[in-house]
Amino acid sequence: MNKPLDIAVGVLVDAQGRVLIAQRRPDTPGAGYWEFPGGKREPGEPLFDCLARELAEEIGVTDLVGAPLIRFAHDRGPRPVRLHVWRIHGWTGEPGGREGQRVRWVAADALDEVELLPATDVILAALALPRRYLITPRLAESGHGDWFAALDRALAQGTRLLRLRDPDLADEDYARLAESVIERAHRHRAAVLLDRDADMVAALGADGLHWSASRIAAATRRPVGRRHWFAASAHDRDELEAALAADADFAALSPVVATATHPRARPLGWPGFESLRADRALPVYALGGLEAADQDDAIAHNAQGIAAIRGLWPETAD
């Protein structure tokens, strides 16, 4: 396989939450498809400098303000590419097609009506996912009242994605708990992923599934449709590859740091996490011994953000 071509990509997001897309010109590969603007890096060029140059030339904006979103490689087009994607929320100038291409602002939830370049779905998943993914502790660890008080506090503090994890509960008890959690979360526009089956997701109106690595390995197809999230746990390369093969939308890779719950697991550390995560074409949360203060380190090592139980679960008031 040829070495991937490094491409810098900018996802401009306006005050209404719309994103800017541009249409490939007739004389270019992928002509007619829509994409997020950007272009290939020149030899020795820093990647953000590449993005700034390309966006100035293509759509006439400068003074970019943003943050890394995701880096991944794919070979779904004419040649292998590695995309370095930033979410841009500030710039100078009015975006327009400076090279004869059409540009338009589109609501993120309307992009399924647009013919997009291959692998844009990976960028859209990263764009839609928050930086923090809360995994709930077992209900029995704190008692019903304190557990729900902590959940309510987490939602009030901005949690927008959570996995309801309680392997101690039978399905009937888990479903009753899930019903209450989903109702509370949806009041805050937060998404809830269950760890049981697709039928329960549909019956309770949950937002998706999160499966263990062993369950992912046994999967023969994606268990839920594209309207729902499908997430995977992973601890090594094989399990990350299994997540891709199962068509997961994102993964949680652990452990980054040693944890009390898995004291024998060898921690990856940040270099190990980034090496193992590599350039796989899905967002990957860093999990294991982390807390909110680790978010910037996670992003710097190509994580979607952090996933945690105790590190993101609020203390209840005395």
How would the blueprint of this fold be written?
Blueprint lengths: L4 E8 L5 E6 L10 E2 L2 E3 L6 H13 L2 E13 L6 E12 L10 E5 L12 H9 L3 E4 L8 H13 L4 E3 L7 H17 L3 E4 L3 H7 L3 E4 L1 H6 L10 E6 L2 H9 L4 E4 L15 H9 L6 E4 L7 H6 L5 E3 L10
Parallel strand pairs: 1-6, 8-9, 8-15, 9-10, 10-11, 11-12, 12-13, 13-14, 14-15
Antiparallel strand pairs: 1-4, 2-3, 2-7, 5-6
Overall 3D shape: globular
CATH architecture of the largest domain: Alpha-Beta Barrel
Major sheet attributes: 8 strands, parallel, barrel
In CATH, the topology of the largest domain is named TIM Barrel
Overall structural class, as computed from helix and strand content, comes to: alpha/beta
User: Strand share of the residues?
Assistant: 25-35%
Number of domains: 2
Low-confidence stretches: none
Q: CATH class of the largest domain, anyone?
A: Alpha Beta
Tally the beta strands. Answer: 15
Helicity range: 25-40%
- State Rg: 20 Å
CATH superfamily of the largest domain: Aldolase class I
Distance between the termini: 60 Å
N-to-C series of helices and strands: EEEEHEEEHEHEHEHEHEHEHEHE
Helical stretch tally: 9
Strand order of the largest sheet: 8-9-10-11-12-13-14-15
Mean pLDDT: 94
State the main characteristics.
globular, 318 residues, TIM Barrel, alpha/beta, 9 helices, Nucleoside Triphosphate Pyrophosphohydrolase, 15 strands, four-stranded mixed sheet, 25% strand, single chain
Short characterization:
With 318 residues, the chain is of the alpha/beta class. 28% of the residues lie in helices and 25% in strands. It folds into two domains: 5-119, Nucleoside Triphosphate Pyrophosphohydrolase (Alpha-Beta Complex); 132-308, TIM Barrel, CATH 3.20.20.
